[in-house]
Design goal:
With about 400 residues, the protein is mostly beta strands. It has a domain of about 140 residues: Lipocalin (Beta Barrel). The chain has 2 helices and 33 strands. The longest helix is centred in the first third of the chain and has 15 residues. The radius of gyration is 20 Å and the shape is globular. The N terminus is likely disordered.
């Protein structure tokens, strides 16, 4: 009962402050905002850039909480949490939480911050989990999760965005150590529970999803999709091995089922999880694997709108060709495909996809299962892997140099 009360309060607060984008994939970890009144006719002079502020190296996304824009950057030999004023872009504070992280697949932090309860929770490239005060950036606690759990850093860096579950922060950690998923206490960072699997870790961020009538932590390791109780107990698992452990996207709920997808020419699956007399069973609704797969999400979580998935289909092993694809979620049938669209990442609001491209363009697309309808595009950054964040009609983007705020409200 205590957990349900806490969860209700957390979800209620996210609903009340619907203009916030407090974590990876937004308020409900689905990549969707409920904001309306956004651009539907492209301005002749283009979108208005409200401000552009210095940032730093890294692949961390932008979290928006009330008047704060928060992210992780790397500069001057350290990884910092930084906070900017949402309206002006003025830096409010910055706090060093770890030494610089360097990797052949890109330097700096990877994971989104999580803003909750007046705190910011961050996970660095080498697996340091830290909590800082949102108002002033004061460090509250930090823990070297990989060192504590006697693991090793994932080949391409630790990329899990923290998840709030009851009074714990949950991350995947301890690569190949027998400590694949762990909960840490919000108050002091002490270990609450650990799942001692032998799974490879992968790069996905878990989600809190109702599965078979109960709230579960659904996590996507490098070798399995797993369901875990909110108190950290194993419930079910389904093998799903992708080359190089590149299971990266966040699992999505589709009706009563779960959708996962991977690049490296692996593919996608819609899985049902059913419970009978306390035992769970995973059933395949549909699968599409290999070079003919309908959807191979490389590192972009697809967006579900009105029964259709909008996502990036990457051809080959991390190859340069990527199609933007719409499929019917229940069947896996392709509705349309914009071939050679390019690599990017998306969020959805007001019947549109807002796509941040690695080319640096922002592309706005009308959501339709009938065909691809582009409303406009504009080069705004040097390119990023992360999707935009939205708050009060302002879209926030970043690259390795700057953080940018763009007005996407429909002109009156």
């Amino acid at each position: 009962m205590r957990y349900l009360t806490t969860l209700f309060l957390v979800l209620s607060s996210l609903t009340v402050f619907a203009e916030n984008w407090p974590q990876h994939l937004g308020p409900h970890r689905t990549g969707i905002s409920k904001e309306t009144g956004l651009v539907s006719v492209w301005p002749k002079s283009g979108l208005d850039v409200k401000w552009r502020s210095p940032g730093g190296v890294g692949m961390s996304g932008l979290a928006i909480q009330d008047s704060w824009v928060v992210t992780l950057i790397q500069k001057e030999g350290q990884q910092f949490v930084i906070a900017l004023d949402r309206d002006s872009g003025t830096k409010k504070w910055e706090t060093a939480v770890a030494p610089a992280f360097r990797n052949s697949m890109g330097n700096g932090p990877r994971a989104y911050p999580l803003c909750a309860g007046g705190k910011v929770f961050v996970f660095t490239g080498e697996g340091i989990l830290a909590a800082v005060n949102l108002m002033d950036g004061k460090l509250i606690w930090k823990v070297d999760t990989v060192g504590q759990l006697k693991g090793r850093v994932a080949d391409y860096g630790m990329a899990c965005s923290p998840l709030l579950v009851n009074d714990h922060i949950v991350v995947t950690t301890g690569h190949a150590s027998g400590a694949a998923l762990a909960g840490f206490k919000i108050a002091d960072g002490n270990s609450a529970w650990v799942r001692p699997w032998s799974d490879t870790i992968g790069y996905s961020s878990p989600a809190l999803i109702e599965v078979a009538g109960q709230s579960q932590i659904v996590t996507y390791t490098g070798s399995h999709l797993r369901g875990v109780s909110v108190s950290g107990e194993d419930l079910w698992m389904h093998p799903y091995v992708t080359p190089y452990d590149c299971n990266i996207v966040t699992p999505l709920k589709i009706g009563g089922d779960l959708f996962i997808s991977s690049g490296e020419n692996h593919g996608a699956a819609l899985l049902g999880v059913e419970e009978t007399a306390g035992r769970f069973q995973v059933k395949k609704r549909w699968t599409s694997h290999g070079t003919a797969s309908v959807l191979r999400n490389e590192w972009q979580t697809s967006i579900l709108v009105d029964g259709y998935l909008y996502g990036f289909d990457n051809v080959g092993g991390a190859g340069p060709i990527t199609h933007l694809t719409c499929i019917e979620a229940a069947t896996g049938k392709v509705a349309w495909q914009q071939t050679r669209f390019g690599k990017g990442n998306a969020m959805a609001a007001d019947g549109k996809l807002f796509v941040s491209m690695m080319s640096g363009e922002l592309i706005v697309i009308k959501i339709s299962p009938e065909k691809y309808i582009e409303l406009g595009r504009q080069k705004l950054t040097q390119g990023s892997r992360q999707s935009p964040a939205l708050s009060k009609g302002i879209l926030f983007l970043r690259d390795d140099e700057s953080i940018v705020a763009v007005d996407v409200k429909q002109a009156k």
